[in-house]
């Protein structure tokens, strides 16, 4: 089969790789129909995630069909159409029993495209399949469903829920990439008074408005002042960091009000300064996190009911074997306008982000 293989920082290719097979009785083999590329994959290619060894097939999000299962798998069978979660859960360790699947100590957590071969291939082996794949509602097609493998649960759990968004809040989302836009969409479920989005790209700020942002600010033009003006000088109740660079994290700590929440979602490849000399007195709650995907069943039901704008995030689609081209388009989002690229099915490039 073919897969997209990481060979070291700046080196990758779509090439022949061995077909996966069942290794453990809890495994499932999925024929991949639809995949997407995550910002974390770009971090891996830059060398920001040293745990990923050369020779690893990348990817941790997919929709496909079960073709084989181990003898202990009970919830799915060959022929079932499933969503492959970005998080694998053993279901037995302390963290899994508490719903903290991202911290699984039983051979799970974020392993696909990280410590084992991932989903950007024609077939993928999914360990602990009973808790790590989700049967798909018939109402969801692949491009819609694949966005529920990672970005929507990540934005919802690590951003909105960790940030404790409540009715009437002012929410600042710093970064209007796919995670930031998914955070806007899911924060709206809690009826905040306003959502303010900060980014450097005019096209992404326009997309943020279509997803429900009440105000937008260019990162280089005093977003702190705008948020202060909107809140009578108090600051945002919740600041969601959705980029993963020191500047955006530090901006979040400056725009949040005393007693507020900073929810870091971005994947950081270098240190950020925590200005405790200024923050110690502000009673802030700062959270970090890897998604647990415990919300995925709920989000699947909401998407099937048309309550989540999943398809609005997809700006480019490619056939599966155009992986290298898709990576190039996604990595040059500032030039291409890419939000999410999806592979599988006929090609279709969207110029403008449709309104929600």
General description of the model:
The protein contains 13 helices and 17 strands. By secondary structure, the chain is an alpha/beta fold. It has two domains: 2-150 and 293-349, Medium-chain alcohol dehydrogenases, catalytic domain (Quinone Oxidoreductase, Chain A, domain 1); 152-287, 3-Layer(aba) Sandwich (Rossmann fold). The strands form three sheets. Strands 3, 5, 6, 7, 8, 15, 16 and 17 form an eight-stranded mixed β-sheet that branches. Residues 346-356 have low confidence and may be disordered.
Secondary structure blueprint with pairings:
Elements: E1 2-8, E2 11-16, E3 28-36, H1 39-46, E4 56-57, E5 62-69, E6 81-84, H2 94-97, E7 123-126, H3 129-132, E8 133-135, H4 142-145, H5 151-161, E9 170-174, H6 178-187, E10 194-199, H7 202-211, E11 215-218, H8 223-230, E12 236-241, H9 246-255, E13 256-264, H10 276-279, E14 285-287, H11 296-304, E15 314-318, H12 323-331, H13 333-336, E16 340-343, E17 348-349
Helix pairs in contact: 5-6
Number of DSSP helices? 13
> Overall mean pLDDT score?
94
| Alpha-carbon distance between the two ends | 38 Å
Overall form: globular
CATH level-two architecture of the largest domain: Alpha-Beta Complex
Radius of gyration from the alpha-carbon trace, in angstroms: 20 Å
CATH superfamily of the largest domain, called what? Medium-chain alcohol dehydrogenases, catalytic domain
Keywords:
alpha/beta, 356 residues, six-stranded parallel beta sheet, eight-stranded mixed beta sheet, Rossmann fold, Quinone Oxidoreductase, Chain A, domain 1, 13 helices, disordered C terminus, 24% strand
């Amino acid at each position: 089969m073919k897969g997209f293989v990481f060979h070291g920082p700046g080196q990758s290719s779509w090439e022949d790789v061995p077909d996966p097979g069942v290794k453990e009785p809890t495994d499932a083999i999925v024929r991949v129909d639809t995949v997407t590329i995550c910002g974390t994959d770009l971090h891996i290619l830059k060398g920001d995630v040293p745990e990923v060894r050369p020779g690893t097939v990348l990817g941790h999000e997919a929709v496909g069909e079960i073709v084989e299962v181990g003898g202990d798998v009970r919830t799915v069978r060959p022929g079932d159409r499933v969503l492959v979660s970005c998080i694998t859960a053993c279901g037995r360790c302390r963290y899994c029993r508490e719903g903290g699947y991202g911290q699984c100590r039983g051979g799970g957590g974020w392993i696909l495209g990280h410590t084992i071969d991932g989903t950007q291939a024609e077939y993928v082996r999914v360990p602990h399949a009973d808790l790590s794949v989700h049967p798909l509602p018939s109402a969801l097609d692949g491009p819609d469903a694949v966005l529920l493998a990672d970005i929507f649960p990540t934005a919802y759990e690590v951003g909105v829920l960790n940030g404790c968004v409540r009715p009437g809040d002012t929410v600042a989302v710093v970064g209007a990439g796919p995670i930031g836009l998914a955070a806007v969409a899911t924060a709206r479920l809690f009826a905040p008074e306003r959502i303010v989005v900060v980014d450097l790209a005019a096209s992404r700020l326009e997309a943020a408005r279509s997803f429900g942002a009440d105000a937008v600010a260019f990162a280089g033009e005093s977003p702190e002042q705008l948020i202060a003006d909107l809140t009578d000088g108090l600051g945002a109740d919740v600041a969601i960091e959705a980029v993963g660079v020191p500047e955006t994290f530090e901006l979040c700590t400056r725009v949040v009000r005393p007693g507020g929440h900073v929810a870091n979602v971005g994947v950081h490849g270098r240190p950020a300064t925590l200005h405790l000399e200024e923050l110690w007195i502000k009673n802030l709650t700062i959270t970090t996190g890897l998604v647990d995907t415990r919300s995925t069943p709920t989000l699947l039901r909401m998407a099937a009911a048309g309550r989540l704008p999943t398809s609005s995030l997809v700006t480019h689609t490619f056939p599966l074997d155009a992986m290298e081209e898709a990576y190039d388009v996604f990595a040059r989002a500032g030039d291409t306008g890419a939000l999410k690229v999806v592979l599988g099915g006929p090609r279709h490039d969207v110029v403008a982000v449709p309104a929600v």
